[in-house]
Design brief:
The chain is an alpha+beta fold. The chain contains four helices and seven strands; from the N terminus they run E-E-E-E-H-E-E-E-H-H-H. It has a seven-stranded mixed beta sheet with strand order 4-3-2-1-6-7-5.
Length: 114
């Protein structure tokens, strides 16, 4: 499937995090946090169905890089969403707002906390 593997990277914040989640088409995922070993997990079937729908939609068919909320602030997070056909950068001083504005981040963000 063209949207997979899906990689979401989160960088920045007060502690200077550098985390990533890589999700394969079969729902298997690897979560990495700087300085810790990778964690293997699985994404639920319901979440995978939503991701497939989002990644197949017109918003994910663009090429190149797009950016949402380009203003970067101290202690904010920068997210990068990479699929087979597009890279999207999301910057946010208010992490909850930045996540809420991007449906892929809404589905994937919880994996960073696991």
């Amino acid at each position: 499937m063209k949207g997979f593997p899906l990689t979401v990277t989160r960088r920045g914040g007060f502690a200077g995090v550098d985390d990533s989640v890589r999700i394969a088409a079969d729902g298997s995922a690897v979560v990495t946090h700087r300085g810790r070993p990778p964690v293997r997990t699985a994404v639920s079937a319901a979440t995978m169905a939503e991701l497939r729908q989002l990644l197949a939609g017109p918003a994910s068919t663009g090429r190149g890089t797009s950016s949402v909320s380009p203003a970067v602030c101290a202690d904010g997070y920068e997210y990068e969403i990479v699929t087979g056909s597009a890279t999207t950068a999301v910057h946010g001083c208010d992490t909850a707002h930045a996540i809420a504005q991007n449906p892929v981040l809404t589905l994937v963000a919880g994996l960073f906390e696991g």
